[in-house]
Specification:
The protein has a single domain, classed as Cytochrome Bc1 Complex, Chain D, domain 2 (Orthogonal Bundle). The protein is 42% helix and 4% strand. The protein has six helices and two strands. The longest helix is centred in the first third of the chain and has 18 residues.
Length: 141
């Protein structure tokens, strides 16, 4: 079985457990870390409540926890690698989110098995990705 298929199966199987698991990070500290993200991403609820204004570069991060990677209605600038990973079952849980924001292209190369895979997100998070995940986990269903 390919590495991607193994990862996809594990990710899909983990979704019910990940959705119930409490994030390990500190949401208050994650709010401070979000400043690094705010130039490209926003957090806006489906009813229009703005936590962080939407920026034109990246997708809305409302409901990112548990969302299929590379899938956000109306956003068309995902890389082909992240879209393919999502179509193969990659869902944002704490483990995948932390690995991705620490090294976006490296993460995609690992999960897709494609040494040339690239992410359109070039920024590597400085600080605790677990804290950022805990912060974003507050916004969604």
């Amino acid at each position: 079985m390919t590495r991607l298929k193994s990862f996809a199966i594990a990710a899909v199987m983990a979704v019910p457990f990940a959705a119930q698991a409490e994030p390990t990070g500190d949401a208050d500290a994650g709010e401070q870390n979000f400043r690094q993200c705010a130039s490209c991403h926003g957090v806006v609820s489906p009813d229009g409540e703005v936590t962080h204004r939407l920026a034109p570069t990246g997708p809305n991060l409302w409901g990112v926890v548990g969302r299929q990677a590379g899938a956000y209605e109306g956003y068309t600038r995902f890389s082909s690698a992240i879209t393919a990973a999502g179509e193969d079952g990659l869902v944002w849980d704490e483990e995948s989110f932390v690995a991705y924001v620490n090294d976006p292209s490296g993460f995609l190369r690992e999960v897709t098995g494609d040494s040339r895979a690239r992410s359109n997100m070039n920024h590597r998070l400085r600080g605790s990705a677990e804290d950022l995940f805990a912060y974003l986990a507050q916004f969604g269903e």
